[in-house]
Amino acid sequence: MQKLRLLFVFSLLILASCRQTGNKKPGSSIDTASPSELTAPSIHRYEVALFSLDQKNFAADLNKIAPEFRVFLGNNYQSPEAIEQLRAFVNDPQNSRTYQDCMKQYPDLDWLSEGLSKAFKIYSKEIPNAVIPKVYTYVSGFDFQYPIKYADSAMIISLDIYLGSGYKDYQTMGIPVYVSQRLTRDHILPDCVKELCYPLMEKSKSQTLLDAMIEEGKILYFCDVLLPEEAKEFKIGFTPAQLKWCEENESNLWSFLIENELLYSTNAESMSMFMTDGPFTSAFSQESPARTGTWLGWQIVSRYADKTGTSLTTLLKNTNSQEILAKSGYKPRRK
Q1: Whole-prediction pTM value?
Q2: What's the start-to-end Cα distance of the chain, in Å?
Q3: d(Cα 100, Cα 102) in Å, to the nearest integer?
């Protein structure tokens, strides 16, 4: 079963591997909308098309959906091996059940289309020559590593990664609670927007804790700009209680970094303590979230952008973390 899933998503992993380029390749066959033509995007639901194929006329019906879903099927979809793999994937009981669960949870995606439309309009204004991607959904076989794939001019959403924090299969697979709490409908839109950000960012050649904090802070500030109405906890993936803990302990977090001279550390332990996912930040109580360095970086970048009025593109290309910190004037005081 695992081998089958890997074969099925191989072409999609190619898309994921090139997300850092962010540019449309010459001759790409995927259509895009210009900013002036933006309307609510049609979301192309590959899972519906694939699982609705007539088993008796599988190969013939595959031809009918191929033009719309070339990004999944490629050009060799009619080979006997490809047809057999697709048929086996569709007929696998677990995949079939997962598809039914996706349809119960997401019978329509009008809300997502509307949210993406608003985000894309801001994106096209903020980013020169922005390419607005076509949006697809599919059942991935639980591809947790790449829930959203974005490359060139296609954005692909794994609906089976967003079936709710209490979804039974996540528990069966041993997904930690601190991960499954983010596998919900409310996190899809922020996760999509983050993927738009990655190719636009210049990365620092050094990699101090401050560099990592600022880079993650830029991504969340990007979400603030494109999703001004979205709740902050969904952008960062915290619970409301975890977000409140950060707000109430902001000065303590900052003081700990300063007093222990960690800001410019390249130590793997320091980086892991403040930037790596987990149940909590080990230097603090179990009520704290992990990735508190990401939250602090968000505060610094937000204040820097407010104070300097820098454009989004300039901010994303600025790799001088020390300059961003200094000009932000960020110095939280103990309450």
Answers
A1: 0.89
A2: 55
A3: 5
